[in-house]
Amino acid sequence: MLIRIGALSETTGVSEDVLRSWERRYGLLTPQRTAGGFRLYGDDDVQRVRTMVSLLSGGLSAGDAARHILETSVPAAANGSLPSTNAVVEELQGRLHGALRGFDDHALEAAIDAVLAALDLDTAIRDVFIPALKAIGDDWAAGTVSVAQEHFAVNVLRARLMALARGWDQGFGPRALLACPPDEHHDVSLVLFGLALRRRGWRITFLGANTPIADITATSRKLAPELAVLYASDWRAYEPIFPELKSYAGPATALGGATSGTAVEATGWRHLDGDPVAAADQATREFQPKRRNSTVAETGDGTAG
User: Does domain 74-163 have CATH number 1.10.1240.10?
Assistant: First the structure.
């Protein structure tokens, strides 16, 4: 989908003046032009801007960040056409999987940057990040990577994902309260779910790993979210708190991650099925309040007028 600069600014939270500056100074954006001379920006431009924001928040200068993005972008084919999505995903999967198994922070950061620069976030989550987390978890279980390797890789990836989450509690959409149950210490999948929800217009209140049910209840009473979601990598993490979940009095509730029919039946909570992207789609269909239809006039630069 192609959008004008006003819509690009609204989507990324970066002002139009800054976007023009990045395009002019660094060649970060590659817009197409309409017959009338308007610039139109694609998904690759959106991802570059979001990666730029992430790198700047990590302390890089604008010049260094832009150079890094352009160097790690997937190149066009020799005939000038872009490689197929499947080929891009396979290349990025291999690069990330390899980097996850080493202790090379720079290589892992560069691999993550390449994923975020080349793919929209939903595709990155579904086709690269989730398979990578599963693969390194399987390798740890098989004894082919150490606990130290697994912790290093997951912590670097989590830190980068949380950088993308800046400001995800702001806006005017419905609020989702996200947490992992007690003794669930792995919350990367929950972070990915939160990012996918944010792309669908939700505001995110993130409590993270190992959260007592009493704290979830207290936070829910204070903030009155439209939805509360617990995420676990093993459904048996819910077993010790079945009674608390059954008696939980709050907003709409759902269990994500590795969930069983037993957990759903014992708690009365809904089940969000599939990977974080599919779960975010389901949550939006089933729990997001319906909005009234409205007509929005657009000005010449693509912003609401």
Answer: yes
Superfamily covering domain 167-287:
Cobalamin-binding domain (3.40.50.280)
Residues 204/162, Cβ–Cβ less than 8 Å: no
Token pair listed for 121 = 């976030």
Residue 214: enclosing H or E segment and its boundaries? helix 213-223
- Contact present, 202 and 284 (Cβ < 8 Å): yes
* Whole-number Å distance between alpha carbons of 205 and 198: 11
Angle (nearest 5°) at CA 111 between 105 and 112: 90
| Domain parsing of the chain, residue ranges | 74-163, 167-287
54-71 pLDDT per residue, tens: 778 767 788 888 888 877
302's tokens: 């693509």
Quick: pLDDT tens for 131-189: 999 999 888 889 888 999 899 999 999 999 998 898 899 888 899 999 999 999 999 99
CA distances from 143 to 55, 130, 133, 217 (A): 34, 20, 15, 39
